[in-house]
Amino acid sequence: MKKLVVSVGIIALGSSVMQAVETGALNAQQTKKAWSVSASLRGFYDDNFNSQSGPNKQSSTGAEISPSIDFGVAGEQSSFDVGYDLTARYYDKSVNGSSDRSDFTHNFNATATHAISERVKLNAGESFVVGQEPDLQRGTIDNPQRISGDNVRNYANVGADIQATSLLGFQVGYNNTLVDYDDQGNDSNSARLDRMEHGVNLGSKWTLNPQTAALLGVRLGKTEYLRKGEFADFAGNVSATSRNSRSLILYGGAEHEFNDTLSGSLLVGGQRTTYPNNPNTDSKWSPWVESSLDYQYQTQTKFSLGFSYNRSASDLVAPLGVDFVRDAETASLYASVTHEIAAHLSGSGSIRYQSAKFNGGSVDGKKDNFLLLGLGLAYEFNPNLEGNVGYNFDDLSSDQSGRSYNRNKFYVGVTAKY
User: Fold this and answer.
1) Are 173 and 156 in contact (CB under 8 A)?
2) Is 15 domain-assigned?
């Protein structure tokens, strides 16, 4: 593996004493005991495990082992949670781009909160992933295909919630994302997508009543591509850093709690993007949206719905003279549901649809449409052991010839947890 860069957030500790226990960083299990462990063993069938189009498809059967461990502690002012997940897959065929028949994905997560006073709370988070499957946790999909090698995605954030008065509060924060692919060369994922993203949020929250708050704010963004010494196969040998961008987002919206089980939020605004290393490209304004709706009835049913619209990185270059793809306008819609069907039997489903419209190059204005679908059933034999079966479907429909593909995955297995 080449370099691993992990962003670190520092939380300042206050000295005041809070009466209530601070549990903001904990998951549901950490509120009952400090640690939890689990392990899953699954057999699977994947009809296109290399995510290839047409006649290049290869199917495979295999086994998957996924152990995980979490540890979290809550105090009067502070809480933290750290966790590690390993997913090891073994195929009956060699995976594309290597002689191995295995994939290993490592996922490390950490969160922390600290209440300086009743009016000021600090928070920080860290998520580090290295592996071969694409990262689908960020809401936008840079490259949906499986990619061989030790590919890195690191996300870190630090922020503060400040309640200045009973009416007015402030939300300030910084986040950092690193994307680092393992392959090399001019026409590689590393050349096209290796980057560092910085984001700053300055927001205000106006509490109109106990159920409703208005939100106004600004977000500043900076994207820097990292292959300064290489060229990403652009026409005219243009450096990858010509894709560097700066963004300004102005937004407004609201949060509302409809009742004890249903809440939602909506932020809408405009995003202005500039490309400082590409003087031939004008600044662009585009819509920007973040929205969510959450429903939870006790422990039996949970439903989430969300939509976002923003600009994101693209793995396409598509040179046309001196022009090339700079980024994409990306609309993403997702929904997920879990429901207790009967005693000890629960079902789950999730769907994500993403449409990316390319900006620049020979594909200017053309689109990639990506669909992810997941279905699952779980039966609880006892509090520490459950059986599960599931199905996942991926479909990429692209305006570009030879890029579209679909993928069907089936699995059956058991999960032990304590």
Assistant:
1) no
2) no
CA dist list (Å): 321 to 244, 279, 325:
19, 15, 12
Q: What would the two tokens of residue 193 be?
A: 């997508």
Nearest residue to 341 (alpha-carbon basis) of 292, 369, 379, 385? 379
Structural domain count, the chain: 1
Backbone φ, ψ for residue 284 (5° rounding): -130, 135
pTM here is: 0.85
Q: What is the DSSP letter of 362?
A: G
Q: Is 12 a member of any domain?
A: no
Q: Which residues, in sequence order, are CB contacts of 227 under 8 Å at separation 6+?
A: 190, 191, 194, 239, 240, 241
* Cα angle 139-144-145, degrees, rounded to a multiple of 5: 155
Q: What's the length of the chain?
A: 418
In a domain, 320, yes or no: yes
The span from the CA of 84 to the CA of 160, in Å, is: 26
What residue numbers bound the domain in which 85 lies?
35-417
Going from the first residue of the chain to its last (418 residues), give the mean pLDDT of each consecutive group of 10, the final group possibly shorter.
Answer: 36 32 54 86 93 84 96 90 94 77 92 95 95 60 71 95 96 95 80 92 96 98 82 59 93 97 97 87 88 92 96 84 85 96 96 93 91 96 96 92 90 96
